[in-house]
Design goal:
This protein is an alpha+beta fold. The protein has 21 helices and 11 strands. Helix 12 packs across helix 17.
């Protein structure tokens, strides 16, 4: 079991010394039990927010409406939240109100899955009213209490269940699967930004077979913002698995590559879906370029490679080759070697690399559109014959 950092213990001990209960809760407890290193450490306490702030010199209100205060300890930050009970959910997204509670069990009962409804304190051990530790050992994602109630409170939890399957390699409880099939339409009420974040975490998980669950439960339609998945699902899953395997020593692959394979079937619709999911412009541009060029054949001539290097920065060109090797099979090492040799020799493939520019042309009376056309012709000639790239030869 992963050990608790000293700064987290200090916060728990400070709260306890003042007469308050305090436990680490949620995902950090789940990961600690699994032997993984938690990304964040969260504490639940019987202390009210003002009481928490009075005990620590450096705090800020990170979610005071819901009882959360961030405590700074050295260079680390830990969120400390008062035990609470959620009110009625009216919009499939968030409770209309929260009520502070004095019992850790009540706080745990409002959580989504049993594996996230475990509390731990060094002085008291585990508080596990829903057998979350048992479900961790069984590799099972199971809702706290009634699945329909949990998913009715926050529809994003349906997508979170699939995301946890992808990240942890767990299976999803049959009751949860049935509830998703019944309530999946509620995901349409969830903002594109929240859906996007869950999709990204899902694709970055080490078990992409969970993508199959998106299709089987009908969630895929809502993830794609009202579109049917038009690709060969098993092939796409296999490609994502292969991409992850090729990065086994370097960690998980870049998100842009995972998205390119996931959306490889979309063709011209890729950009529209990415925009509907509120991706940033840079990601949209990169992924759309990958998807556009995936089915196209790359000629082995240096001239054709330079034309692609003009479109793709060198690191993206290497990524494109990886994607094409995975999706089309074969080895593109000859093209990879040629591109690296072009870069090593400093051969020109952009207007910026030309030995002349618009000012040089203006001096000999060529301006405006004619200058632009001339520079393009110069670049084409230089990409075919690098020896032409001198000011004297071009002018």
């Amino acid at each position: 079991m992963t050990s608790i950092p000293e700064y987290v213990k200090e916060i728990i001990n400070t709260l306890a010394a003042a007469g308050h209960e305090a436990f680490i809760v949620g995902g950090c407890v789940r990961d600690m039990i699994r032997g993984a290193i938690p990304v964040d450490w969260d504490i639940a306490t019987s202390a009210l927010p003002d009481e928490v702030k009075a005990l620590f010199s450096r705090t800020f209100d990170s979610g005071i409406k819901h009882g959360t205060v961030s405590v700074l300890s050295g260079g680390d930050v830990c969120e400390v939240t008062t035990y609470r009970v959620d009110g009625e959910y009216l919009d499939n997204r968030r409770p209309s109100e929260v009520t502070f509670s004095g019992k850790i069990e009540e706080d745990l009962s409002r959580r989504d899955f049993t594996i996230n409804a475990i509390a731990y304190a060094p002085s008291r051990g585990f508080v596990d009213p829903f057998d979350g530790r048992g479900d961790i050992s069984r590799g099972l994602i199971k809702c706290v209490g009634d699945a329909e109630t949990r998913f009715g409170e926050d529809a994003l939890r349906m997508l979170r269940a699939v995301r946890f399957a992808a990240v942890l390699g767990f299976s999803v409880d049959g009751g949860a699967i049935g509830a998703i099939a019944k309530l999946r339409g509620n995901l349409a009420d969830i903002s594109a930004e929240r859906v996007r974040e869950e999709l990204c975490k899902l694709l970055c998980g080490e078990h992409p077979q969970a993508v199959r669950l998106l299709h089987e439960t009908g969630l895929m339609y809502y993830v794609l913002r009202g579109r049917a998945f038009g690709g060969e699902l098993e092939r796409v899953i296999s490609w994502i698995e292969d991409l992850g395997g090729s990065d086994s020593d370097a960690g998980r692959p870049p998100l842009s590559l995972l998205l390119a394979l996931f959306f490889s079937w979309t063709g011209g619709k890729c950009e529209c879906i990415l925009r509907d999911l509120r991706f940033d412009n840079r990601t949209i541009k990169i992924v759309s370029r990958f998807v556009e060029f995936l089915p196209k054949k790359i000629a082995e001539s240096r001239y054709e490679i330079k034309k692609l290097l003009r479109i793709f920065p060198p690191e993206e060109f290497e990524d494109l080759l990886r994607l094409k090797e995975i999706s089309q099979g074969g080895c593109l090492e000859k093209i990879r070697a040629e591109s690296r040799d072009i870069l090593a020799r400093g051969e020109c493939f952009t207007l910026r690399g030309l030995a002349v520019n618009g000012d040089d042309l203006a001096e000999i009376g060529i301006t405006g559109k004619a200058a632009g056309e001339a520079l393009e012709k110069f670049l084409d000639a230089v990409m075919r014959d690098p020896n032409l790239n001198t000011k004297e030869a071009l002018l």
